[in-house]
Amino acid sequence: MKLHKPDCQCEHCEWQRVHDRWTTEHAAERAIPHHEKPCADRSFISYRAKGRYGWIMIGAKDDADAMREAGRSTDTVITLERWDGTRYVGVNHDPLLA
After folding, report:
1. How far is CA 86 from CA 16, 22, 51, 82, 89, in A?
2. Among residues 87, 90, 91, 49, which one has the least CA distance to residue 68?
3. 3-state secondary structure of 97
4. pLDDT digits (tens, 9 = 90+) for 25-82
5. Which H or E run includes 88?
6. Is 3 a residue whose pLDDT tops 90?
7. pLDDT-based confidence at 94, cuts 50/70/90?
8. In this structure, what is the dihedral angle of CA atoms 63, 69, 73, 77, given to the nearest 10 degrees?
């Protein structure tokens, strides 16, 4: 929707200004795919496992726990990665732990 006039003060135009401002401020946040962000609760470490059909987002207490959780979601874990505070990094895992 557009503003009625650039200086219009009606409720619709005020709402539109707020909406446009919010959309602009949060555009960068929305541009980051969900699987590129940490998803675990504060009491866990964020992991992601690449399965046959895509990323599996996991919250776990350690690498072995993450592999067990990934194994509950898929029979084939291709990659396991841990959130290091800024990005996901690969984890060397023992396939026998799954």
Report:
1. 34, 24, 22, 10, 9
2. 49
3. helix
4. 767 666 778 788 888 888 999 999 998 888 999 999 999 999 999 999 988 888 899 9
5. strand 88-90
6. no
7. low
8. 20
Kindly tell me the number of DSSP H helices and DSSP E strands found in the chain: 2, 4
Q: Can you state the percent helix, strand and coil of the chain, rounding each to 5?
A: 40, 20, 40
CA dist 90 and 88 (Å) reads 7
Cβ 11 vs Cβ 39: under 8 Å:
no
Can you read off the two tokens belonging to residue 4? Answer: 């009625």
| The residue to which tokens 């929707």 are assigned | 1
